Amino acid sequence: MDTTATVSAVESVGRDTYALRFDAPDGFAAEPGQFVKLGTEIDGESVARFYTLSSPTVGDTFEVTVGIDPEEGGDFSGFLAGAEAGTEMTLSGPFGDQHYDGEPRAVVIAGGPGVGPAVAIAERALDDGAEAAVVYRDDDVSHADRLDRLKKRGAAVHLLDADEALDEAVAEALTGSEGETVFVYGFADLVADAEAAVEAAGGDADAAKVENFG
């Protein structure tokens, strides 16, 4: 789908991290963990970036979580930083098959803005009567309220500092139960560490659903 989407709300969910909620265009449907391309025109040039959904479902609205680097983020980051209700952007997608698909247990390993799809997948799994675990590594916790609610609902949530090893938390999160699926969302260093931790815990990293942010 190639269309436009309008921002309905912007919420700060962590340091330099924002949840942008959009009115869903007619016919738009997506699963948690899929991503969309958002864009605009700046100084006569089209600029666009990919962002992963952080809403457990798509109804009248959908959400993405964006990390904005105020010094090195570029023109589009500056545009997003100034977004408010009523801001319009081009929208393409959704894209990607590394998303929640009704698995009976979802174990999500995330870093940075990957916490967005992590909480969305965990929420969707619990809503569907499945189990969920989140291993989240970052010095600054984003979506803290949603992570707290997940814990209260029975999800296993492991919060780690940015320089902390993943092995112990991943080993605790993995149960080896039938249908258990690992999801990984983050930048290249997080992805590499996550895959190594899954293998060290006796899991199959090749079977994981992975989105590498680069």
From TrEMBL:
Residues 1-101 form the FAD-binding FR-type domain. Pfam families: FAD_binding_6. Gene3D superfamilies: Translation factors (2.40.30.10). PANTHER family: NADH OXIDOREDUCTASE HCR (PTHR47354), PROTEIN RFBI (PTHR47354:SF5). This is FAD-dependent oxidoreductase. It comes from Halorubrum rutilum.
